[in-house]
């Protein structure tokens, strides 16, 4: 076989670095995008924020006739995520400080400080704790109370071990015998000592913490209620002796054994239901998560308007001062570095523009499809899949998936992730289609209006939906009910 030269022609899709950057920015959430922008500002001297009131400069020495994207338009506007801080005049920062000050002079009388910008302590809306405190775990909360309780060293060791065995719901995971075995035999600790210390911990906050089962948890909470609480004795008796009957909702047996009338038993059960079966959940250990909407939808003159959240992303531009240092014919290392940084800044701004334009197209089509939801609520939600939006905007379904992931829309009915507006469909008797989200809303409405003594079964709900022209199987109703967090009919039964 002789070697030969063959000429072939073909097409190949190449993922350039600029395209990779645009795709990566497209799938970032607003908070992640703000962090990405901050990192770009710190690493690229050619990028800078445009403050409020500054004229936007489109000039770019290396643009070759192309203008930078104009963020002033509604679709591609990049506004500061946080309120702009007005800078003071230079002369105000260079005041003459006297060499000697009167003893009654306050710091703020001479030095300018930003502390005055904080709300005063008399402001009812200012909550220092909610703005400065971090999440606290249940164990750290119990240890804090333990440090305030007078105990011997041995009892404090036992208490610390018990606290370590309490789960996030507030229940003691290990038995007292297992806890006793974990101690050094030389300490000569007895089981009675461990139980006494456990009773001390069970008096801590939140009420019911340290319980070994649900019965003990409810009893501990009832003991901490005022003695004059109505039906307190009956509630203690129910929690101690008849909790199984309450779980199975056998109200006739409860009335017979406790010798109570239906109205009296209802008030006792209401007192039991006011307690927290998971007391540890009151102590939130995780940090709060904030949602920044990317798109704002509002109604104006009977028309639904879609706008980008102009406070979500900072406004960026190329620094004209540094860009002016770039020389076209210079091939030195410094000039090459500045040229590359300028090119990266231009591509970064263009990627942000492309992200916002794509987001606006997708959000506008979603609002166009789901006007019924905006007007009438979940029951008017229409079936919608990624292919429908991709076909409308002329993009691939994978792009639509990236756009709708971790992106949120602020509507008059609340803040929803863009993926919320996509749902499968169920056929109707008239040949149409009904959204699964609308079916869930109807199921939720039917359960809310049911007779508490005779709750609707899944088969009955399927029959009611069929009467409305919606053909849904019983197992589908059960799946939708479970996704809504609604218990089965046997567990929803209660007294009036």
From TrEMBL:
Acidic residues: bias regions: 51-67
Molecular function terms, GO-annotated: DNA-binding transcription activator activity; nucleotidyltransferase activity; sigma factor activity; transcription cis-regulatory region binding
One Pfam family here: Sigma54_CBD
GO biological process: one example: DNA-templated transcription initiation
Region (Disordered): 43-78
Segments forming a coiled coil: none
Domain RNA polymerase sigma factor 54 DNA-binding: from-to ranges: 336-494
Keywords: DNA-binding, DNA-directed RNA polymerase, Nucleotidyltransferase, Sigma factor, Transcription, Transcription regulation, Transferase
RNA polymerase sigma factor 54 core-binding domain: residues covered: 128-322
Xref: Gene3D superfamilies: Homeodomain-like, RNA polymerase sigma-54 factor, core-binding domain
Gene Ontology CC entries for this record: DNA-directed RNA polymerase complex; protein-DNA complex
Family membership: Belongs to the sigma-54 factor family.
Its job: Sigma factors are initiation factors that promote the attachment of RNA polymerase to specific initiation sites and are then released.
Record protein name field: RNA polymerase sigma-54 factor
